[in-house]
C-alpha cells in the first residue's frame, strides 16, 4: 500500500505517495486517539463524484469534537482537499481516507503540545466484501466480542482506536470460515458489523438497530431515505439475535460494503439463503443513486472536477 505512485494530501500539501511518512513516536500510533473517514467517489456520466461528501466531512468534525481534538481546518477546506486527492491521482472512482492524528511533538497521555495533522489518501477500491457477494450474499457469525458500550468509548465518533474491537471480531469470524462478524451490544442486542450497519426485513417491514453503540452510518441514512421514499416502513429499535435467525432478509450497509446481502447467520440460512427481493430492490436504488442514474437527491453527489 505504501509503495505506489500517486500523491497524498498531507497538512495542505500534495506529497508523493512513497514520501508520506510519519515518525515512530506519532502519538496516535501509541494510543489510538485519532479520527478518520471512509468516503467513496463513483464514476458517473459527469465524471467522478463523491457520495455525500458534506455528511462525511461533518461526521469527521463531529468525531474530532467528541474526542476533544481541534481540527485546524474548516469543513469546506477538508471537503475541497478530498476532491483534490481524487483529482490529483487521476481516479475515475475512489475510496477516500481522511485521517486526523496527533503528531510526535510529545509522548505520554499528558502530552499537551501535540499538533493535529491531517492526511487524505484516495485510491481505487472495488467491492469490499467481494463483487460476487453483492449478489450472492455473505456468511456471518455472531461475534464473541461485544460492541462498544456507549460509556466506554464514544460510539458516535469514528475513532481509530474503536477499530481494535472491529478487528478482533472480524479476525475471529474469518478464522472460523465466515465472511463477516455481527456484533451484539453489551446488553446482548444486535449492534452492527465490524464496519457496517445492520438491517433485517420481516413481512416486508425493514428493521434496524437504534443508534446507540452502532456508528451513525451515512450509507445507513441514505438507504433508509431511499427505502422510505419507495414506500417501505422502517422501524429503528432493539433487535435480538434470534430475530435475525427467523427474518426473511438481512443486509449490511457501509461506504466500503455498500449494500451487501447476508445469506447466513451462525450457519442458519436467512430466509431462502440468498439475496431477497427487498434487498435487491434497495441495492438497485442505491447503486443507481451513487452512480448518478437517478434524478432524486442530486445534492448527494459532489463532482470532483
Ligand atoms: N459501522 C462501522 C463500525 C463502520 O466502520 C462503518 C463504516 N464507516 C459503518 C458502520 C458504516 O458507515 P458509513 O455508511 O458511513 O460508511
From TrEMBL:
Q: Which domain of life is it from?
A: Bacteria
Q: Known InterPro entries for this protein?
A: Aminotrans_IV, Aminotrans_IV_CS, Aminotransferase-like, B_amino_transI, BCAT-like_C, BCAT-like_N, BCAT_family, Class-IV_PLP-Dep_Aminotrnsfr
Per the UniProt entry, the Enzyme Commission number(s) are 2.6.1.42
Cofactor or coenzyme needed:
pyridoxal 5'-phosphate
Query: Pathway listed for it?
Result: Amino-acid biosynthesis; L-isoleucine biosynthesis; L-isoleucine from 2-oxobutanoate: step 4/4; Amino-acid biosynthesis; L-leucine biosynthesis; L-leucine from 3-methyl-2-oxobutanoate: step 4/4; Amino-acid biosynthesis; L-valine biosynthesis; L-valine from pyruvate: step 4/4
So what does this thing catalyse? L-isoleucine + 2-oxoglutarate = (S)-3-methyl-2-oxopentanoate + L-glutamate; L-leucine + 2-oxoglutarate = 4-methyl-2-oxopentanoate + L-glutamate; L-valine + 2-oxoglutarate = 3-methyl-2-oxobutanoate + L-glutamate
Q: Could you tell me the Gene Ontology terms of the biological process aspect for this record?
A: aspartate biosynthetic process; isoleucine biosynthetic process; L-leucine biosynthetic process; L-valine biosynthetic process
Q: Which Gene Ontology cellular component annotation is one that this UniProt entry carries?
A: cytosol
Gene3D superfamilies, A to Z: 3.30.470.10, D-amino Acid Aminotransferase, subunit A, domain 2 (3.20.10.10)
Which region is the signal sequence? none
Which keywords has UniProt assigned to this entry? Amino-acid biosynthesis, Aminotransferase, Branched-chain amino acid biosynthesis, Pyridoxal phosphate, Transferase
Any matching Pfam family: Aminotran_4
Q: Which residues form a coiled coil?
A: none
| GO molecular function terms attached to this record | L-isoleucine-2-oxoglutarate transaminase activity; L-leucine-2-oxoglutarate transaminase activity; L-valine-2-oxoglutarate transaminase activity
The answer to whether keyword Amino-acid biosynthesis applies is yes
Quick check: keyword DNA damage in the entry? no
The task this protein performs is described as:
Acts on leucine, isoleucine and valine.
As for family, the record states: Belongs to the class-IV pyridoxal-phosphate-dependent aminotransferase family.
Q: Which NCBIfam families does the UniProt entry name for this protein?
A: ilvE_I, PRK06606.1
Name of the featured protein? Branched-chain-amino-acid aminotransferase
The organism named in the record is Sediminicurvatus halobius
Q: Which gene encodes it?
A: ilvE
Amino acid at each position: 500500500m505504501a509503495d505506489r505512485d500517486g500523491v497524498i494530501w498531507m497538512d495542505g500539501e500534495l506529497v508523493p505517495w512513497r514520501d508520506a511518512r510519519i515518525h515512530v513516536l506519532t502519538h496516535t500510533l501509541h494510543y489510538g486517539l485519532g479520527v478518520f473517514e471512509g468516503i467513496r467517489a463513483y464514476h458517473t456520466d459527469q465524471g467522478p463524484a463523491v457520495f455525500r461528501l458534506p455528511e462525511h466531512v461533518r461526521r469527521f468534525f463531529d468525531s474530532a469534537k467528541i474526542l476533544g481534538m481541534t481540527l485546524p481546518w474548516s469543513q469546506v477546506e477538508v471537503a475541497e482537499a478530498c476532491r483534490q486527492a481524487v483529482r490529483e491521482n487521476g481516479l475515475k472512482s475512489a475510496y477516500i481516507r481522511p485521517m486526523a492524528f496527533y503528531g510526535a511533538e510529545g509522548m505520554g497521555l499528558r502530552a499537551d503540545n501535540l499538533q493535529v495533522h491531517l492526511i487524505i489518501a484516495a485510491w481505487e477500491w472495488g467491492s469490499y466484501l467481494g463483487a460476487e457477494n453483492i449478489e450472492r450474499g455473505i456468511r456471518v457469525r455472531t461475534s464473541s466480542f461485544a460492541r462498544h458500550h456507549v460509556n466506554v468509548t464514544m460510539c458516535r465518533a469514528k475513532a481509530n482506536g474503536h477499530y481494535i474491537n472491529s478487528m478482533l471480531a472480524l479476525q475471529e469470524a474469518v478464522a472460523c470460515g465466515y465472511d463477516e462478524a455481527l456484533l451484539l451490544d453489551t446488553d446482548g442486542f444486535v449492534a452492527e458489523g465490524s464496519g457496517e450497519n445492520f438491517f433485517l426485513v420481516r413481512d416486508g417491514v425493514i428493521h434496524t438497530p437504534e443508534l446507540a453503540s452502532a456508528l451513525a452510518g451515512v450509507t445507513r441514512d441514505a438507504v433508509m431515505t431511499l427505502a422510505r421514499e419507495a414506500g417501505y416502513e422502517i422501524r429503528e429499535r432493539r433487535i435480538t439475535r434470534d430475530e435475525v435467525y427467523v427474518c426473511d432478509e438481512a443486509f449490511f450497509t457501509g461506504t466500503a460494503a455498500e449494500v451487501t446481502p447476508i445469506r447466513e447467520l451462525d450457519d442458519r440460512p436467512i430466509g431462502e439463503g440468498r439475496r431477497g427481493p427487498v434487498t435487491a430492490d434497495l441495492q438497485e436504488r442505491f447503486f443507481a443513486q451513487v452512480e448518478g442514474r437517478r434524478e432524486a437527491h442530486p445534492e448527494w453527489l459532489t463532482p470532483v472536477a
